Fold this sequence. Notes:
The complex is a heterodimer. By secondary structure, chain A is of the alpha+beta class. Chain A has 2 domains: 2-76, Roll (Ubiquitin-like (UB roll)); 84-149, [2Fe-2S]-binding domain (DNA polymerase, domain 1). Chain A is built from 6 helices and 5 strands. Chain A has helices at residues 21-28, 73-76, 84-91, 101-114, 120-127, 137-149; strands at residues 2-6, 9-13, 47-50, 53-56, 69-71. In chain A, helix 3 crosses helix 6. The longest helix of chain A is centred in the C-terminal third of the chain and has 14 residues, at 101-114. In chain A, 57% of the residues are buried. Chain B contains 19 helices and 27 strands. In chain B, helix 14 packs parallel to helix 18 (706-721). Chain B has 3 domains: 2-208, Aldehyde oxidase/xanthine dehydrogenase, molybdopterin binding domain (Aldehyde Oxidoreductase, domain 4); 214-286 and 338-428, Aldehyde Oxidoreductase, domain 4, CATH 3.30.365; 435-461 and 496-740, Aldehyde oxidase/xanthine dehydrogenase, molybdopterin binding domain (Aldehyde Oxidoreductase, domain 4), CATH 3.30.365.10. In chain B, the strands form 7 sheets. Chain B has a 7-stranded mixed β-sheet, with helices on both faces. By secondary structure, chain B is an alpha+beta fold. In chain B, helix 3 (75-87) links the parallel strand 3 and strand 4.
Amino acid sequence: MTALKVNGRTQDVSAPDDAPLLYVLRNDLKYNGPKYGCGLSQCGACTVIIDGQAVRSCVTSIGSVVGQEITTLEGLGDMSAPHKLQKAFMDENAAQCGYCMNGMIMRAKVLLDNNPKPTDGEIRQALDGNLCRCGAHNRIVRAVLRASQEA
Amino acid sequence: MNIETNRRDLLKGAGALVLAFELPASEAAAQQAAAAPPPLPGSLRNNPKVSSWLRIEADGKIRLLVGKVELGQGILTAVSQICADELDIDMKRLSITSGDTWLSPNEGTTAGSFSMPDCGTAVRAVSADARRILLGLASQKLGAEADKLVVSDGTVRAPDGKQTTYWELVSGQELEVPATGKSPTKPASARKYIGKNITRIDIPPKATGSLIWIQDLRPDGMVHGRVVRPPQYDAKLINADLDAARKLPGVIEVVRDGSFLGVVAQREEQAINAAAALRQSARWDMPKEAPASDTVHDWLLAQKTKDVVIKDQAKPANLTAAATIEQTYKRPFVMHASIGPSTAIGTLTEDGVMTVQTHSQSVFETGAAIAQMLGMDKTKVRMQHVQGCACYGHNGADDAAADAALLARAVPGKPVRIQWSRNDEHKWEPYNSAMLLKTKAEVDAKGDIIDWRFELWSTSHGTRPGNNAGNLLPARHLAKPFPMPEPVNGGPPNYAADRNAIPLYDFPGQKVTTHFISSFAARASSTRGLGAYSNVFAIESFIDELAARAKVDPLEYRLRHLKDERGRAVLQKAAETFGWSNFKKQPGRGRGIAFARYKNLAAFTAIVVEVDVNAATGKIRVLRAVAANDSGEVVSPDGVKNQIEGGLIQSLSWTLKEGVRYDASGVRSEDWTSYPILTFTEVPPVEVVLIDRPGTPFLGTGEASQGPTSAALANAVFDAVGVRVRDLPLTPARVKAAINA
């Protein structure tokens, strides 16, 4: 048994210490937010926030994050009370397929936590390691800018 | 508004779905009287019953059933907008079932920018029919003339205040009524949704981690499958240590059937570990020789080809050539490269039904191919589309569905989830074919084009499952393999390898020849736009070269050769929006323009791009891009802009960076490091302007901007530094080499 603290709740999982956090979050704890994209830390679709840092959960073992605060997309808000970033992505239709959206929102959350009023260039820099294949980049940047302008 | 993701609930309810549209007596008589009706619009042609598309449920919910599926193009939102407006209901009242082979109308494959022309048009007609029929029923019930009734969100009111609802009007027995396609549709002034920008229905769940993706389905008892692919296309499995794999933690089953090698395990990481062990122990018979990407264009020219002249218009005898110019353009294999690798869930239940949840574009035909592969009756295979990562064409989705079915057959009763790895997707998806294009023009003394010759060499752009197991990757690896059928090139009016190869320009003499190659240098199939990307790149680069040679502005030169009014309009609109006439040339910077009407019968798009080229490094920086698009009547302006901009940016990525590398050892482009794509800091600002044509047919949008973008970019590079790069992608090394040549 490993105890993981996810979105403020401590939950026990019976998985080996070296199991990737992504699979444990998705399969054992049934979170939908983090996505499998590459398993190689190359695309960012699996991003979660751990102790304030954007982390690629596909290459993070659960044994390495015991006792740390893990936040998934679900931890930010839900459909009835979305986080300002989630709301901004809806308002800007900031997606084509939206598969990368989890990573975009989670990475942007860490950016705004550290730099509440980023420039367009700073947002692009922050998201440069998160891949989008649909070409929704400019919409995503607009959504992050919009969220940064919310109180 | 609700997109069905819990299919079991829907299935349970299906038997009880009652509804119905009673056909008023006068209507029935009118239909009997009508002899030989004209063809129904859109996908109604093959699915003519109203009840195939719309169901009114007792709780006041209205269900729209469609055969087209959501791929990130926003189709489910657009057809919901249409349905809600034509039926006079609030969008919140609507639920959608899409791409379920047991429930949805068969609309074939979701591809080719046909979703709006086929599905959107059908939904509009059938919703208007349903409204008219319902008002007929209400008229009888309320004792008021139908044209005096007012509808608000499905509640029908008579002038005297009496009212009823759509769900009270349906009688309870299912009645299948043929659609007429003739009911009046809403005038623009009466629409609430069509033409408006709304939040797409799938984005709130995606932004919050609510259940919507195929990846989010976790049926009870689900187990995890992985397939170990050969190292190279034609490698054959000699042996592998199956027993060792069976002893690994969590392993439920190991399957070997010829060169098909797979494992099913309790946990996902256990399946991955077992697959890795199998891969390590496997010995393969490798082919001695195989084509390589470095020499693919020589390979194309060396193959036996099927040659078809698709356009032959002799140059008038009175025109005399002052010069003849020839060029050759090349593009490599390019991958779809979805961010989410392919996935599927297969379950063989006790009733002998194989159910596969899939993000395939072609659930009906892929289902039939899977049935053939399994030796099952096709009525016993049920395919259910659930949204997956955008595919941009025929990627690994169908093969993953077949993998899931094969492994599910080995563990009856257990839902088996297949998840391709990044490596699987990069190496095994069918790519967009490499192409070689030769152009030749005769120009008169003014430099105007009097004769145009265009020849193209390409492998197939269409190896979708198409009811044939031989098109499914795992079926080709079985001990009794299903042979791959010989691919054919799709013909007119849409064409395939030669899509957009016929120029829309009014050149006096024209000859276009397709050299179709039915063998493969790498696995290939349909990718957004098929051959249009390459053909438009060559046509619009060459015309730019001819404009430069004639010392005529490239916009003016195009307009000189183009009569089509809608084509001229997008060219002029793009130029005006960009500021073409006031452009101030700076050293190292340039602008380029290009145009196409997708398939010569769909959307019109002109693109202008501005670039900065570093002459020392050859690196291209795209500074900005403008697109003007005419997709006919616009249902969702933001949706159209999203598709045009997305297609433009994806095309910039193809054009600047992409080419699949492979050799006899296999595909070498196996992840995002070995196959890089455009990233945020490289994406330019994009402005999209639309020319809306209310009252004209939907033309479709998804594949309209890729072709013109490639040529606009190459033309801008020429404007910036005076060199032509005709060999894609436009890498720094190639640009630098051209500058130094």
